[in-house]
Amino acid sequence: MNAWIDFKVLRKKLDFEQVLRHYDVEVKRKGSQHQGFCPLPDHQGKKNSPSFSANLERGIFQCFGCGAKGNVLEFAAMMEKVDPKDGAALHKVAGELQKRFCPELGASQEAKPPATKPEKTEPKSDLPVVVNAPLDFELKGLDRKHPYLLNRGFSQETIDHFGLGFCSRGLLKDRVAIPLHDHEGRLVGYAGRVVDDATISENNPRYRFPGKRERDGKHFEFRKTLFLYNGFRIKAPVDDLIVVEGFASVWWLHQNGLPHAVGTMGSDCSERQAELIVSLVKPNGRVWIVPDGDKAGERYAQTLLSLISPHRFVRWVKLDEGEQPTDLLAEQLKTCFTT
Hints:
Blueprint: H1 7-13, H2 16-22, E1 29-30, E2 33-36, E3 52-55, E4 60-63, E5 69-71, H3 72-79, H4 87-101, H5 103-108, E6 129-131, H6 147-151, H7 156-161, E7 165-167, E8 175-181, E9 187-194, E10 207-208, E11 213-215, E12 218-221, E13 238-244, H8 247-255, E14 261-263, H9 271-279, E15 281-289, H10 295-308, E16 313-316, H11 330-336
Parallel strand pairs: 6-12, 13-14, 13-15, 15-16
Antiparallel strand pairs: 1-2, 2-3, 3-4, 4-5, 7-8, 8-9, 9-10, 11-12
Helix pairs in contact: 3-4
């Protein structure tokens, strides 16, 4: 019987940079990020475009050209021309990596896994899955003059433009409801933002997004990674597009005369969102990345740079530590985007 391998432990232990060099990949490190040509044998995208990006700290990769992505073990499997979903094949590749780079793990692991609490899994179902289905209703009775919005400096025009309002009942009770439209302009859900940050906890996150539900014999899912917040309002490619993390930054930029701004709704950017960003900018246009001034914002900017810079000119507007786009005054914003 093959020795049991704890994939999770192995992934954390492996040095992705060592694995890349093992496969003769010339590592071009920028901080924790490597960017270069895609080394995958089955790469079908452009050969002369640096579309491959690997986060060496998190042990994950993605190729904007061929669409491949995954963790360090899945990368090794693809380099060995085996299907990462083939458990036996992946086990063999993992075993070779463990033997070469982490031999100490093999000596400490049993032939079978230790008894652990089983991970939660989604119930199996043959029901069809519908993603980001348009809603057949709109929330009514929202308070568009709630102190949370007005005290943060947002004008009534901005509040009305984005359809914001405090919700006093239902799943978004005691939250500001934020309408979410997909790239075609269809209302596909609402996000809810708490109005008192002191109440934020593991069970009460800052933002609440639509959950999964079953209805009429179908599973309905919401995926924010498939569209950009405010992206539907940009009807044709523009010369300059500003990309930020959160909702409030989009509202603030609009209020200060910068309507061509979109948000990824979090400190990450999916390949689909990157594709949409590229599509909203003219070939000779510019993408302005304005992340929050923290470590997560720095990683966010590096991800966007790796995904978008092969296709459009990109500028990274670096904010001071702890600063957010909403902290910038009108004159400061004007200076940021005129250099």
